Amino acid sequence: MTELQKTITYGGVAVVLAVLAFVTAPSRVTPDAFQDKNELFFQDFTDPNTATTLEVIEFDEEGSSAVPFKVTFKGGRWTIPSHNDYPADGKDRLAKTAAGIIGIRKNEFRSNNLADHEALGVIDPLDESATALTGRGTRVTLKGQNAQVLADFIMSAEIEGRENYRFVRIPGQKRVYAAKVSIDLSTKFSDWIEPDLLQVQKADIEKLTIKDYSINERTGSLQKRDTIELTQKDDGDWKMNKLPAGREINMSKVKDLLKTLDEMSIVGVRPKPEGLTQSLTKMNSDGISITQEAVRSLQSKGFYFTRDGQLVSNEGEIQGRTKQGVIYTLRFGEVVYGSGLAVTAGTETDSTEGGAGENRYLFITTSFEGSQFEEPPKPSNFDFISKADSLLTDRDKENKEIQEKHDQWLAKIKRGEDRSNELNARFAKWYYVISAQSFDKLHLKRSDLMKEKKAT
Residue 173: exposed, middle, or buried by beta-carbon count in 10 A (0-12, 13-18, 19+)? Predict the structure, then answer.
């Protein structure tokens, strides 16, 4: 055999061996645990606007119980069931949360072992069979129309050292993933409601009346101590009634009071008994009286009727009149102690004796004072209505201008009345709970609003 033949033979054998090695080599196997890496958790959920209910369940280790929070679309409006269906300004927040949930992916497989769930913090907070109090995650459920489940998962706290990453598990499954979860998942009552309680601008308030009195809760008799009136003058300064010589208004206190009214927020809410409305301060023309249930409800919160039917409170009241003629009346009631749902929703028996987180009941009504807008004169005749502009006499033009000013006055009166009615409809069903800090800034005496006059 020549050298060339040997070379060709050896080359052929090498090729055959290479082919055999390729054919018989073991195939590369991808473990099942990694086959779904980076897949979306909820592939059928694509439109965030289809979500109509969000439920978040956390676990209170101290109380050894699950704590639910829910926002849902009910009866044509967004409500918070845990807070007696208080209206929620939740549509935009829910849509953003839903959009974030749509994008959650199975970034990294972590475990398929049930024994790891506690360490990874993904034990279902609703799992009554689990004995561990630690390692409970937060369960998040989104539903659409007809209670269709769009997404349901349990997530841990944020993974240490990895911003926005959490361990995530589907209920009923053992497998746990590390996933990027970039959602603003608030369970705070205050984050889901209209934050501006009074919806008034401090620049619009032109008069403040602080009524300092005490009420004999047994007899219903009222002991008036002082009535402080603060009125804004045309030049923007403020004046106070019964200001003693050598004293002047403490404007820092007044500004703080106005700011508190402007920025006041809700700590909690309680429903009023059915039938107890914004007209409590006046008996209506039909002579409908307040039920005993309503009276007991009022008294339990620190509000009472005097012998002449006037609604008062055991911590006095403050009124603020706006430039639009709307008068807000804020009556301060009993102390509310506690924290969490006990304060925000009243899920536990309210206590007025001791405890943390002191707050205060607030009863709000509004009225409209149209008398501050003097009615302009009316036209002497209305001949201008049936005439073309080209045929108007000087007298007709004058009457037309008078009528336009009167129409403007009527429109202003209607706007004020409508605004007051709108606010009363909002306040009618609820007792509010405000913070002790807000109460302290509003519950002032005359001495708080004065200071020694500077020498000139």
Answer: exposed
Last residue of a domain, one of 191, 210, 227: 191
Same domain, 103 and 150: yes
Q: Are residues 117 and 223 in the same domain?
A: no
The pLDDT, as a whole number, for residue 278 is: 41
Computed over every residue of the chain, the mean pLDDT equals 87
Residue 136 shares a structural domain with residue 208: no
Are residues 216 and 76 part of one domain? no
In the numeric block, the tokens 């409209």 are attached to 368
- CA–CA distance, 279 with 264 (Å, rounded to integer): 23
Domain extent at residue 337: 202-452
For 5-23, b/e burial (b = at least 16 CB within 10 A) is eeeeeeeeeeeeeeeeeee
**What would the 3-class secondary structure string for 10-27 be?**
HHHHHHHHHHHHHHHCCC
Is 86 inside a domain boundary? yes
| Cβ contacts of 198 within 8 Å, gap of 6 or more | 261, 262, 264, 328, 364
pLDDT digits (tens, 9 = 90+) for 24-67: 444 444 455 567 889 999 999 999 989 999 999 999 888 788 88
Rounded CA-CA distance 284/290 in Å is 11
Nearest to 331, CA basis, from 379, 356, 282, 298: 298
Whether residues 207 and 306 share a domain: the answer is: yes
The first and second tokens of residue 56, run together, are: 């978040």
Of 29, 31, 58, 38, give the one whose Cα is nearest residue 112: 31
**Residue 25 within a domain:** no
Sole residue written with tokens 């200001």: 243
261 and 116 fall within a common domain: no
Of the three residues 130, 156, 191, the one that is the final residue of a domain is 191
Rama region for 76: left / alpha / beta (φ>0; ψ in -120 to 50; rest): left
> Same domain, yes or no, for 350 and 247?
yes
- The residue-averaged pLDDT of 184-189 equals 84
Residue 439's nearest CA partner among 271, 315, 314 is 315
Alpha helices in 317-393 (DSSP H): 341-344
Structure tokens at 124: 């279902």
Query: How much is the CA Rg of the chain, to the nearest whole Å?
Result: 34
Secondary element (H or E) of residue 122: none
Report the number of distinct structural domains present in the chain.
Answer: 2
